[in-house]
Amino acid sequence: MKTPLLSICIATFNRAEYIGETLESIIPQVTDDVEIVIVDGASTDNTSSIVRHYIEVCKQIHYIQLPSKGGVDQDFCKAVEYAKGEYCWLFTDDDLLKAGAIEQVLFEISKGYSLIIVNSEVWNQDFTTLIFEKHLSDKAQTVYEPHEFEVFFQHCVSYLSFIGAVVIKKNIWKERDKDSYFGTGFVHIGVIFQKLLPTTIRVITKPYIKIRYGNAQWSSRKFEIWMIQWPMLLWSFDVISQTSKQNIIAREPWRNLKELFVYRSLSAYNIKVLQKLISNYTISYLWLFFAKCISLFPVKLAKRILIKYYAIRGKAKDLTYYDLLEEFNNK
Asked: Looking at the chain, which runs of residues are DSSP E strands?
């Protein structure tokens, strides 16, 4: 078999319910220039039997079962290690590729970009409701030259929390530090932004991915991730100015009482979680008093207040507003 140009690298764990549908969206688009590399972090469900069924259909699938669970960051790195392609598409195990996605990416690969970003649609969990037609900011340019790296950060880093959007040259991935970002859940962000990329970045603004929103395996840890880990990661990049970082997220967003109220309304934390996560920080007694009050605030009432607030402010297309409505209507 010829050496592929593109390796679709999937890290999976206990996704038997979803990975078959993901593979069905990919396999019809696979050519001789494409392989699929699946690293299974020791799933305990029937993920293995489902993937092996698809191996019978598509010989370009390479399936690696790990003896123990290593974590999503390590598993994506292992998938890239096993990949033979010049480029690696770090794809998710529960989302879908739209028709023409691989053809478009292969076309862009031929131009030698350092990094290719693929836009997406956002759907609910069973793909019955389209939430956003385009997930990437309208500010996004189609091309970013090396000297526009910080502009790229400002326009795209929030979207890039979704790893499935990333197609990167394998040699760039291999030569960069990964270990420092293990455990963040965003090793790809660390690889991309730890230093300047050598050549142009291409952004495909047409959506070629369908995201199954709200299905992340770390959803129960969203307060810790978005209030602590995510800002800590973004603020660690020396090549990005403090102004640009501040424009994306505060260094310690949990200090903002309004943010605390939003996450309380999303049932994301309670007083025990709050005290544990901020135990290593210096805080005032007054702030702690108000924070404790918020952490004890009735969740359902908080939801009602924020739903009305978002409706009045015309934020019906905000994902937080969608989350609030979903949680409120399901309880």
From this structure: 6-12, 34-40, 61-65, 87-91, 96-97, 115-123, 130-132, 143-144, 166-169, 201-212
Residues in the chain: 331
CB atoms closer than 10 angstroms to residue 37: 26
User: What CA–CA distance (Å, rounded) separates 150 from 155?
Assistant: 9
Amino acid present at 159: Y
Q: Which value, in Å, is the radius of gyration of the alpha carbons in the chain?
A: 20
Find where tokens 């025990």 sit.
Answer: 272
Residue ranges of alpha helices (H) inside 201-298 are 222-224, 230-234, 242-248, 257-265, 271-277, 285-295
Contact 263, 227 (CB under 8 A): yes
pTM: predicted TM-score of the whole model, two decimal places: 0.94
Residues 249 and 105 in one domain: no
Q: What is the DSSP letter of 108?
A: H
Domains held by the chain: number: 2
Cross-strand partners of 331: none
- The 10s digit of each residue's pLDDT in 161-211 is 999 999 999 999 999 999 999 999 999 999 999 999 999 999 999 999 999
**Is the Cβ–Cβ distance between 234 and 247 less than 8 Å?**
no
Beta bridge partners of 63: 38
Parent domain of 234: 219-297
Judged by DSSP in three states, 88 sits in strand
For residue range 31-41, list pLDDT tens digits in order.
999 999 999 99
Q: Is residue 330 part of a domain?
A: no
- CA 49 – CA 130 distance, rounded (Å): 31
> Which amino acid is it at 126?
D
- Write phi, then psi, for 120 (nearest 5 degrees): -145, 160
**Do the domain assignments include residue 303?**
no
How far apart CA 74 and CA 179 sit, in angstroms, is: 8
